Amino acid sequence: MKITLLTGKTYDIETAVGFPLKVVKSPRAKRLTLRIDQQERLPVLTLPNRCTAKRAVEFVLSYKEWIEQALSKIPETRKFTHGDEICFFGRTLKIVHTPRRRCGVMEEDGSLCVSGSAEFLHRRVKDYLKKQACIELWKRSKQAAEQIGCRLNDVTIKDTKSRWGSCSSLHNINYNWRISLAPECVISYMVAHEVSHLKHQDHSRAFWKCVKELYPQAEEGKNWLRRYGKELYSYE
Q1: pLDDT value at position 137?
Q2: Architecture of the domain defined by 85-232
Q3: How far apart are the C-alpha atoms of 141 and 66, rounded to whole Å?
Q4: In the sheet that 42-47 helps form, which strands lie side by side, from edge to edge?
Q5: What range(s) does the YgjP-like metallopeptidase domain occupy (predicted)?
Q6: Phi/psi at 7 (nearest 5 deg)?
Q7: How far apart are CA 106 and CA 221, in angstroms?
Q8: Helices marked H in the chain
Q9: How far is CA 68 from CA 35, 41, 63, in A?
């Protein structure tokens, strides 16, 4: 990104540091900050208004080793392919490409059979998982909402880049489709977490008490997400 200096000249920070970098100028930022964009696999530099290009470059280079280590820990992007075994709502499914069958995507004896061209296999599997996740998570969320005496309006499956779920004031819950690939403890925790927001639109003690009443092993699911959740984001 090229930034304009007070002199009117432009300065390319990415060229100066010598590696790909995303630069964001923020009038609300009080200091220079660095974070890693897991999806784009890029370091992100946030600049306050009054910051010299020289200072920005020095700041980034001082964290070069940290950036390299952080980027190396990001899992490689994955696509569903023939022969893959996935965990879907606690059951193991083996993806089997059956190009000549006209079944679309179908579960059969522990296999997930996918017809059609191989180039569309990932998209077809993903679409199927999202559709089934919507059905299953609606059922689980509805049941949990009834337990705490709350109304659930709708459940939507999203392909979000950083959030596992959300709950609106209109009693709508969104889930990231990737949680369907997580262990059962994670799915149960996420349902308990989002459904509890129907009653408590915060993270107060009352909220966490509600979560644990719905799912006593909530801490197990929460810890798993914290430790291994980023691996699920490797799926496109």
Answers
A1: 98
A2: 2-Layer Sandwich (3.30)
A3: 40
A4: 22-25, 42-47, 33-37
A5: 30-227
A6: -80, -10
A7: 29
A8: 13-17, 53-62, 64-72, 121-147, 184-196, 205-214, 218-232
A9: 12, 11, 9
Type of residue at 198: L
Cα–Cα distance for residue pair 43/20, rounded to 1 Å: 8
How many angstroms separate the CA atoms of 228 and 236, rounded?
A: 16
Helix (H, G, I), strand (E, B) or coil at 179: helix
Q: Which of 212, 182, 181 is nearest to 196 (CA)?
A: 212
Contact 95, 80 (CB under 8 A): yes
Specify the pTM. Answer: 0.75
**What stretch of H or E contains 152?**
none
Q: Where are the domains of the chain?
A: 2-72, 85-232
Please give the structure tokens belonging to residue 130.
């999202």
- Residue 94 CA to residue 35 CA, distance in Å, equals 36
Q: Residue type for 197, please?
A: H
> What is the mean pLDDT, run by run of 10 residues, along the chain of 236 residues?
44 72 84 84 85 84 88 84 96 95 90 95 97 98 98 96 92 98 98 98 97 98 93 88
Helix (H, G, I), strand (E, B) or coil at 4: strand
74: left (phi over 0), alpha (psi -120 to 50) or beta: beta
Reference 48, options 33, 68, 26; nearest CA is 26
Q: What are the structure tokens assigned to 98, written together?
A: 């059956």
CA–CA dist 135, 117 (Å, integer): 27
- What are the Cα distances from residue 58, in Å, to 3, 64, 84? 15, 10, 45
State whether residue 103 is helix, strand or coil: coil
